[in-house]
């Protein structure tokens, strides 16, 4: 008797007990669907986070300093270090955050991200200009009251990119001239506090506005993430030489954060997949339970088959395949349910979540495996029935 | 004389029931040749079912030798026994033992399925077999759509499908009324006339007299073995 025949028999038996087969499958369906939904949603959410991390630049590292009156690093020293290490670093900028209110005429913006930066910042962030120019070295040297605004600011306060150029904007009451407009970053949303609601000014002007003598934050960029470790060490050695205390500074590499994010993603997927996997295991016990009942119910059938010449392996094959077909049918339905649910839930949560091929393959093979594994015990019980006793059973 | 089909030599079958030994077969020796129609008769508990299980290769004796077509069945493994049952023996049971969810054709195909015949051959032979019992046109029906007599005919068709050397009937009329019993017995006689070897197990002397030779068992021993006319004479 061949395998194909066993499949036919299995399908017939499943079809013959529709309600029971469906309830048996339900456990597998729920298990597989929940594995797919959880893993896909977590992956969707995490890859969104990862993308936003990557867009910040994985080749960058930020330096935060606590400047004391006795021990500090001023901008010139930092530039000196930067110039001495051009083999490691390709760009560098001081970064001065300003908490500011922007005003033009009667309109004002409260949530704009206002940052004092150097002339290298635009390239470092891989941004481009829609109009005008970026902040120049001479602006910084002479603390010019010029600034570059994001698309949202130009659109909101001036009604367009071209209208904003050479206009005056008031930052915390100081009048600045707009010399350039950054291209739109976010194609979907244009909103207050978003990635286009930004303003850059010379870091020297920003420091003056904040009344700080020393700048406490810098961003360095390396040519490649391969240099990250070396560059970080160089920075730390340099800063340690000045501060003599590693509590007073902190160097954070984006690529390291990305790595820890990645391992967090892997952890989350494993934990959630594991929890969902437990429901698959429970479903497997359900399959075994039903198959045991089925063997008991069909003792007489087994007896007849054995009397007519079925060997142990034939009976074994019949029941194992029946269990495997039941659970893999459940697996297929579960995958479909999971895929649909993922799309719906993902849309509702605003994540672009699609079932990963890995999740589909793993959960399908797990459900087939469960069928084989948990079908084995009932099947071997059936195969080892004595034909005489089996024939006598009612 | 030709080699016998069935040769039982000093067969013992002993069951352990607690501390007690039960000798279901207590030294049985018999020989059955091809073309015979033998009834094994005995009361309940006489050991006739044990004999039927041994002859049917469903069970092996505790001691003694059983040759079926010259092959020693007594020392076979489970798989070899399954093969012997499939190739050599056609079973007819009291309760018909048809698979309720399979149609008549599928039921009759079953022994051919385990013999490894391909789909076309299975269908052809099973249909021919159903034809012999006059139920070919009902092949799509399920067993429970048929009368008891018809179901028993299906089980005869199933027994014939594999073209076995021996037809082993266990109380074939036990569940039937006298009219359909008559039909089934006539059919068995017809099969015997066509040259099939038939061994029929029964508790009913009247049924046993439909055979050509009668073997009576009592307490695991044979206490009569002879022609049906001799058997009638001692009743």
Q: What does this protein structure show overall?
A:
The complex is a heterodimer of chains A (394) and B (235). Chain A has 394 residues and is an alpha+beta fold. Chain A has 14 helices and 13 strands. Chain A has two domains: 3-53 and 260-392, no CATH class; 96-214, no CATH class. In chain A, the strands form two sheets. In chain A, strands 3, 4, 5, 6, 7, 8, 9, 10 and 11 form a nine-stranded mixed sheet that branches. Chain A has a four-stranded antiparallel sheet with strand order 2-12-1-13. In chain A, helix 1 packs across helix 12, helix 2 packs antiparallel against helix 13 (357-383) and helix 10 runs parallel beside helix 13. In chain B, the strands form two sheets. Chain B has a six-stranded mixed sheet with strand order 6-7-8-3-9-10, sandwiched between helices. A four-stranded antiparallel sheet of chain B has the order 2-1-4-5, with helices on one face. The mean pLDDT of chain B is 91. By secondary structure, chain B is of the alpha/beta class. Helices cover 37% and strands 28% of the residues of chain B. Chains A and B meet through helix 1, helix 11, helix 12 and helix 14 of A and helix 2 and helix 3 of B.
Give the number of helices of chain A. 14
Percentage of residues assigned to helices of chain A: 55-70%
Q: What structural category do the secondary elements of chain A indicate?
A: alpha+beta
Rg of chain A, nearest Å: 33 Å
How many separate domains make up the residues of chain A? 2
Total number of β-strand segments of chain B? 10
- Strand portion of chain A, in percent? 15-25%
CATH superfamily of chain B, please?
P-loop containing nucleotide triphosphate hydrolases
Oligomer: heterodimer
Average pLDDT for all residues of chain B: 91
Question: Biggest sheet of chain B, open or closed, and with what strands and sense?
Answer: 6 strands, mixed
What's the total helix number of chain B?
A: 8
Order of helices and strands of chain A: HHEHEEEEEHEHEHHEEEHEHEHHHHH
Largest interface: A-B, 22 and 25 residues
Strand order in space, largest sheet of chain B? 6-7-8-3-9-10
Distance between the amino and carboxyl termini of chain A: 27 Å
């Amino acid at each position: 008797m061949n395998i194909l025949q066993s499949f036919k028999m299995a399908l017939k038996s499943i079809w013959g007990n529709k309600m029971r087969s469906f309830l048996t499958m339900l456990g597998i369906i729920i298990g597989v669907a929940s594995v797919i939904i959880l893993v896909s949603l977590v992956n969707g959410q995490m890859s969104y986070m990862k993308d936003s991390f990557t867009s910040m630049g994985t080749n960058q590292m930020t330096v935060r300093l606590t400047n004391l009156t006795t021990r500090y690093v001023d901008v010139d020293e930092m530039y000196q270090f930067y110039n001495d290490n051009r083999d490691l670093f390709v760009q560098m900028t001081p970064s001065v955050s300003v908490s500011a209110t922007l005003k033009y005429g009667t309109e004002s913006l409260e949530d704009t991200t206002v940052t004092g930066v150097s002339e290298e910042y635009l390239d470092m962030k891989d941004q481009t200009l829609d109009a005008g120019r970026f902040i120049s070295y001479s602006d910084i040297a002479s603390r010019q009251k010029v600034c570059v605004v994001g698309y949202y600011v130009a659109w909101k306060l001036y009604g367009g990119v071209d209208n904003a150029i050479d206009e005056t904007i008031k930052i915390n009451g100081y009048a600045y001239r707009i010399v350039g407009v950054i291209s739109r970053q976010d194609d979907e949303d244009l909103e207050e506090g978003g990635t286009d609601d930004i303003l850059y000014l010379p870091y020297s002007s920003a420091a003056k506005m904040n009344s700080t003598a020393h700048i406490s934050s810098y961003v360095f960029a390396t040519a490649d993430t391969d240099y990250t470790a070396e560059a970080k060490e160089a920075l730390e050695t340099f800063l340690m030489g000045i501060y003599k205390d590693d509590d007073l500074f902190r160097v954070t590499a984006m690529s390291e954060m990305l790595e820890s994010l990645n391992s967090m993603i892997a952890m989350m997927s494993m934990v959630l997949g594991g929890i969902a996997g437990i429901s698959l295991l429970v479903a497997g016990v359900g399959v075994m339970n039903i198959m045991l009942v089925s063997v008991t119910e069909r003792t007489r059938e087994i007896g007849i088959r054995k009397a007519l010449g079925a060997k142990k392996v034939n009976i074994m094959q019949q029941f194992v395949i029946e269990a495997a077909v039941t659970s893999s049918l459940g697996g297929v339905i579960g995958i479909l349910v999971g895929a649909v649910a993922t799309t719906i839930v993902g849309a509702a949560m605003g994540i672009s979540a699609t079932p990963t091929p890995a999740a589909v393959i793993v959960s399908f093979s797990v459900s087939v495996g469960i069928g084989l594994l948990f079908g084995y015990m009932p099947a071997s019980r059936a195969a080892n029935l004595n034909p005489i006793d089996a024939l006598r059973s009612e | 004389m030709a080699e016998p089909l069935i040769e039982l030599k000093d067969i013992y079958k002993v069951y352990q029931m607690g501390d007690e030994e039960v000798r279901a077969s207590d030294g049985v020796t018999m020989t059955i040749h091809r073309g015979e129609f033998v009834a094994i008769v005995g009361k309940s508990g006489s050991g006739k079912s044990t004999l039927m299980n041994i002859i049917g290769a469903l069970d092996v004796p505790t001691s003694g030798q059983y040759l079926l077509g010259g092959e020693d069945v007594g020392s076979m493994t489970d798989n070899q026994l399954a093969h012997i049952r499939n190739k050599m023996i056609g079973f007819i049971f009291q309760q018909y033992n048809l698979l309720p969810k399979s149609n008549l054709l599928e039921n009759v195909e079953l022994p051919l399925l385990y013999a490894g015949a391909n789909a076309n051959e299975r269908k052809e032979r099973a249909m021919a077999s159903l034809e012999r019992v006059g139920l070919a046109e009902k092949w799509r029906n399920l067993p429970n759509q048929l009368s008891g007599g018809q179901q028993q005919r299906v089980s005869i068709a199933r027994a014939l499908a594999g073209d076995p050397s021996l037809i082993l009937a266990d109380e074939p009329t036990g569940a039937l009324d006298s009219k359909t019993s008559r039909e089934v017995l006539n059919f068995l006689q017809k099969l015997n006339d066509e040259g099939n070897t038939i061994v029929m197990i029964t508790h009913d002397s009247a049924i046993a007299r439909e055979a050509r030779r009668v073997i009576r068992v009592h307490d695991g021993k044979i206490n009569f073995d002879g022609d049906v006319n001799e058997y009638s004479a001692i009743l």
